[in-house]
Description:
The chain is mostly helical and about 210 residues long. It has one domain (about 15-200): Up-down Bundle (Alpha-lytic protease prodomain-like), CATH 1.20.1510. The chain is built from 6 helices and no strands. It has helices at about 5-40, 40-65, 70-100, 105-125, 135-165, 170-214. The longest helix has about 45 residues, at about 170-214. The two termini are about 25 Å apart. It comes from Thiomicrorhabdus lithotrophica. It is a multi-pass membrane protein. Pfam families: Cation_efflux.
Amino acid sequence: MACDCSAEITDVSQxxxxxxxxxxxxxxxxxxxxxxxxxxxxxxxxxxxxxxxDAIVYGIAIYAVSRANSIKNNAALLSGYFQLxxxxxxxxxxxxxxxxxxxxxxxxxxxxxxxxxxxxAYCLKLIFKHRNGEVHMRASWIFxxxxxxxxxxVIIGGALVxxxxxxxxxxxxxSVITLLILWGxxxxxxxxxxxxxxxxxxxxxxxxxxxxxx
Length: 214
């Protein structure tokens, strides 16, 4: 029996990459959440929770590596639903802060946003070659790309808070991040369902072909 060494090498490479992404996102989730809470910035808090979601997504993807395509598809689908739930929670927090009020510290928003941008840009570089790969890796690419956009939004929001002396830009950025997460979630759910449907069709075709042969 021939050894599928190339597949094994690819699986090991994917797992190491996802573990690196998981570690970076997990670390910056903690840092950004603490800074965001102290700075009273919903933009930073939303971005930190986005990183938490990504860390969990990468953990799910690590589980899916080297497993059957059906498991990879379901892992991507689960990731999408998790992101959908998170976006809902962040949206509710944006509404709460809009009603209760907050005093975001613009300097901390920009500094933390900048360091998070560097971290996520590095993650994006690492996963770039997998952007058209299997569905669980495509999901990881989309989430990493969204993170970079969210970080840029936090930096811009911090600058606007400072310039306008208003909390409104922070609330807007928190809302934009929510929409970004929603877009990523719907995209991955649609992609995963498409893969699951195609896999089922192929399976039925194969079974039908085998029955006819007999």
